[in-house]
């Protein structure tokens, strides 16, 4: 009894939210906006919109504007947005299950719209958006090029809107003769284009026609306009993973610990682990210790080495991991192995 009263009297309360847990994020983010001016003399102009929870945040920001003269705009998250492709294709696959298409029931199955292919479509869609972030017309064309490319056949190739970065057909032209490609294009296509065999890459036209409504919707200017200047939250999530390594989410940490870990994570994330040494030195006295110096230096070297290796092995590795072992799938669409961005969503932080 006495002990409790004692504890209570000496308790430094860290309570910073009253209300439902659902409103915690909204209130927290709203606080960040509200105090930005007094604390840092800046105004945040945008909010990145990721999921259903953000609708509440956006609503609050719009209806109780934290600044008099700056209205906050919504930024769509490209990773999240491109999942529309996945969801629409999944839905249409389900809806057409009992409909006869191209001689078979539904649009799924081997050589047709497999689950893997659906995921790839989502990735292509994301790429089309992220590579043409600032140009709506280009974005629309890039999305349609996905459809046209996959619907192309040896007799009817439609690669006008394709990009050399992913289109095996254009590439086969390119390797055939680099200087002549724009010169007498039609003649050239008939001569060299033959080398690219569509049969391994195309999807049946009946299937492509069946999923065309998805493209009608997702390549529509009204849809894509929302995602102009969109961005991803990768950098944000990547910082989070550093923070939660310091303070694991599955364990309770007090506010003081979280503050400390957040500070350490910022140091480590921005300037490397060696930047933590002066902090330790100040807390413990002395100069931080011989082995601490060496340890932190090693962590940093490892990080650089890993990054270097990842950049080199990224494309090869992600082809084997995301495309799995299905050779047939690999052949469905030739990708440019030299392109860093091509497969950079084999891991998409926060996207799932
Ligand atoms: Zn308390
Ligand atoms: Zn193409």
What does this structure look like?
This protein is mostly helical and 352 residues long. It folds into three domains: 2-76, no CATH class; 80-227, no CATH class; 234-343, no CATH class. It is 57% helix and 3% strand. The chain contains 17 helices and four strands. The chain has helices at 2-10, 22-40, 52-63, 78-81, 83-95, 115-130, 136-151, 168-176, 185-192, 205-210, 212-218, 221-224, 234-246, 255-271, 277-284, 290-322, 327-332; strands spanning 46-49, 73-76, 100-101, 104-105. The strands form two sheets. It has a two-stranded parallel ribbon with strand order 1-2. A two-stranded antiparallel sheet has the order 3-4. A hairpin with a 2-residue loop joins strand 3 (100-101) and strand 4. Helix 2 (22-40) packs across helix 3 (52-63), helix 5 (83-95) runs antiparallel to helix 6 (115-130) and helix 13 crosses helix 14 (255-271). The longest helix has 33 residues, at 290-322. It is elongated. The model is unreliable at 177-193 and 317-352 (pLDDT under 50).
